[in-house]
Design goal:
Layout: H1 8-27, H2 29-35, H3 40-48, H4 67-80, H5 82-98, H6 103-112, E1 115-129, E2 132-142, E3 148-159, E4 162-173, E5 178-180, E6 194-203, E7 208-210, H7 211-216, H8 236-264, H9 278-307, H10 315-340, H11 350-362, H12 369-380
Parallel strand pairs: 1-3
Antiparallel strand pairs: 1-2, 2-6, 3-4, 4-7, 5-6
Length: about 400
Amino acid sequence: MVTVVENKATYEEIMQKAKRIGEAAELEAIEADRNSTISPRIADIIREEGIHRLILPKEFGYPQLDWRTFVDMVSTVGYHNLSASWLTYFFSVHNSWVCYYPRHIRDEVINQGGFVADVFAPIGKVEPIEDGYIVSGKYNFVSGINYCDWVGVGAIMKFEDNDEPERVGILLKVSDLEVVKTWDSLGLRGSGSNTLIVDKVFVKPDAILRFSKIIEKSQPPYEEFDQDYLYYNTPFYPGFYVGFAAMAVGGAERVLDEFEKHTAGRVRFSGINEKDSPTSQRVLSELKLEMLSAKSLLNEYIAMMETDKGGPYEGAKYKAIRAKIIDKSTQIGVKSLLTLGGHALLKGHPVELFTRDLMAIATHITSLYEDGILGYGRHLFGVNTNIQG
């Protein structure tokens, strides 16, 4: 299946937005790496360009994106700066789960206009009380929380209509919580993925999002939903996670361009131009083919999302493809760094910076290579993996 961009004018407009964000973030890459967060200026540019509005029902008046446009937007920012791509992706995608809340909550969050973060690790403690619940928990790795007004946090709960405990998301206002600046990582340092303390915060029952209901049916729980909405006719988790692969491809493509440029200008102590070396020639050839393979897998992933509408789908296959794309992209960074040698190891060299960021993407729980590959192998032999994507 060939992916078709439905609106060429919209596509070009979105790519310009992505380029503006990426280029601005690239200029501040070293500062963001040092400060463990993007600057307020970059957050403001993302807000000005309306990125957090892109994945909304059409009734809010914003463009309806197709999957290729969304993926290319994330990749384009990633070509310039992966931390900014990480947040561009998250600030756009997080409104998708907000849209599964009842209308009054959805409209409150969207009309307020703030960024939304999430950390759905089910570690929260939920205590039922009269008219609602008390929520507590300590959540690490909350990307972009420095600039967010809302956050979804994870927990396990029991419901009367289900004998088994369920994973849930709980919507909270960041102003009711404590943000602790703990982010000090190998890569993606500009993402500002700090720690969040939730200390006995009251929530009403309608602030609880049951993920099992989204898995059962992609559509939201109200009538007359927007059938053109990007996530309503695609399995939710594969769609929600596609940005990890998209940004990895963008970052790997930048590494390849940097490798070729620095190799062409590199002269060994012997006086030999490195571009004439069979070693570097072979490496460039190999990495170009790996890049082509990663992009082909991403195209297959998009085609699957466009096909899998309203019925069973292979969640384990999605996860394996995504893990393979990210692994290939990361290895492009590592091989480029090792082949370029010591000068590329210096802090702030683009290959050093992008390779660290690619490695950080690969450590995300949804990107872990061994998990993805093993899960798909088990699925192929008929084992129920319960992998949703």
